[in-house]
């Protein structure tokens, strides 16, 4: 490669590199730097704290509660959304009447703004007058304080998230299903393979690249929820729905402790990296790229 070609290649890469540095690497380094300082008092410079913020984090009960909530939230929403998305994709990919309208119905929640979704479900969950409690009353059952009861608040958020995201993930599965080679299924049918056997031995293995993509996105979405919490629960009751990113938001913009928020951000970043490595390590061997 001559010098002119080398220079041309770097000039082509320069805009992307500038954006990557400006919005990814420099903010990450700045966050790490801020996590090593205590908040600056009025008229004074910020004091170097070393690892004190991280030691304080280990004793922070709210942090551990938010971390536990987030893990349960991910465990409840990610597999359910993926399975439901695959089932919907299989259904709308089959030759049924009105499948175009059905696809639109499944995808509609994805097109709604997150704030609008939260307000819609706030009406569903309202005590006494909410849609769900009206349905319970018509069945002769007692009403439930969906967002005010610590036992029901987090599952209620999970249900709303599954409703919002399953249609989005369905689109990826539907695109992958339509790209599968029909000759494989014709050959399997000639061999007498049952529909369940074809699904287990053909469809699922061929969809593994899409499943990995959807899984990574679903896990990321599970750890970046803020909008819905701000509208519905604000982390309550008694931190029962407080998630990591919302706790970071609280520390940065409600408690004005940006240094501790930077510490929490670094912990969340490391957690997401570990989860991504775990996903790729466990699933990479089972993925068959075409």
TrEMBL record:
Gene3D superfamilies: MetI-like. InterPro entries: ABC_transporter_permease, MetI-like, MetI-like_sf. GO terms for cellular component: plasma membrane. The keyword Membrane applies. Signal peptide: none annotated. It is found in: Cell membrane. The chain crosses the membrane at residues 7-28, 71-92, 104-124, 166-190, 202-223, 260-283. Keywords: Cell membrane, Membrane, Transmembrane, Transmembrane helix, Transport. CDD domains: TM_PBP2 (cd06261). Residues 67-279 form the ABC transmembrane type-1 domain. It is a multi-pass membrane protein. PANTHER family: ABC TRANSPORTER PERMEASE PROTEIN, INNER MEMBRANE ABC TRANSPORTER PERMEASE PROTEIN YCJO. Belongs to the binding-protein-dependent transport system permease family. This is ABC transporter permease.
